[in-house]
Amino acid sequence: MAENSIPINGTARRVWRVAFWSLLGLATVTMVALGVHQKIITTQKDARLVHLPIPVETAPATVRTLSDTIGASGTIQPYVPVNLTAKVVARVLSVPIDLGRVVRPGDLLVQLDPTLYEANLRSAQVAWENSKNELRRLTELAKKSFASDVELEQARATEATDYSNLVSAQINLQNCRIVSPIAGVVLLRSTNPGEMTKLDETLVQLGMIDPILMDASVSEDKVRFVYVGMEGDVGTDAVPGRTFKGSVYKLDGEIDDSTRTFGAYIRIPNPELLLKKGVTGYARLRSTRMVLTVPSAAITNPIGDRASIFVIGSDGRAHLREVRTGMTTDEMTEVTSGLQEGERVVVVGQFDLHDNEQVEANRYAPWDKS
Domain total for the chain? Predict the structure, then answer.
């Protein structure tokens, strides 16, 4: 029995060996095949050779907030001019200001001779007191039927006229003293002591300096990103270490031909009057907008200087599409036209991709978190 079992055990060993090596060979072939397949599906060149979809990674176009800082140098200038005109005809007694002087609200600018208008005020006061007393007397008489309604109405009209004359006389006297209504700088002084004023002639022109403006020169390539109301910080050599907060008040409507810049006027509160006309400085404008964006890696320039993107269509193919781009921040680029929210764009593999090629998107791509 023992002798008969020896050939059986030898046969079993041989069968086991054959099966083992066959399985090992099959596993090896499978691993090699998987490796080759993996190489083919992850390498564009190899996938193209065997006519398989080209492997790419994609990301959706999304709307998000992008912020950017735009720098521009500029010069401080008055906010708006304020013209102070003569409202009475009188001799100028004094003009205690000079060109370029900084004035505060209430500072005396021009003193006119008040003599005539003081006399007019006293006369108007006496006339109004008389007419007021007369109206009071007639009112009492009318209650006793000793004054007619016509007399009472005439007395009321006279009192009203005399009161109006009194107010006019008070205003005329006040107009003999011209004071600054704002914090500003004297831009124009067109009168001197001894001269006679004319109605509505400009005596003094002030430039408002609280708030004050910086005329910042912004490069023309930033014209799409600067808008009225955007906030900014202003620094000057005149006040080192101090940052002034402001916002864009208005924009120039055209580009300067020589400098290729446009003016952005930044309105800056200046209660301490530290900023003066002519001071130079540097502005940093903060542009923040909700825009359509794609990863910056998706942008290519295959046709000259025009930006393009490969967009994955519903047919599973990559279509080359020209787009217009805006600001770029934190590896994200604004797309202003040529793309819709939610469309998927190629972010890895786009540089060796051909238009209209069938693609296979990597669903585990790092860009795709959906």
Answer: 5
